[in-house]
Write a structure and sequence with these properties.
The chain is of the alpha+beta class.
Amino acid sequence: MANPTTPKAEAESPRPTTYQDSAFTSRTLIMTSGRQHAVAAGKVTVSSADAEALAFLDSDPAFQRLPE
């Protein structure tokens, strides 16, 4: 039997967050921790649990968060 997902579990699970890159259609973003995120077709997607990437992308005016 399938285990139903509760609203609380959905709220806590990380979701993909996508940003539009207005400067480049392709590039590699390197975080201070050394992790990399690829911009492809002018978009980059990171986990909503990745605080470092979210802070970086939110602080750079070249990136605009797309609605989910």
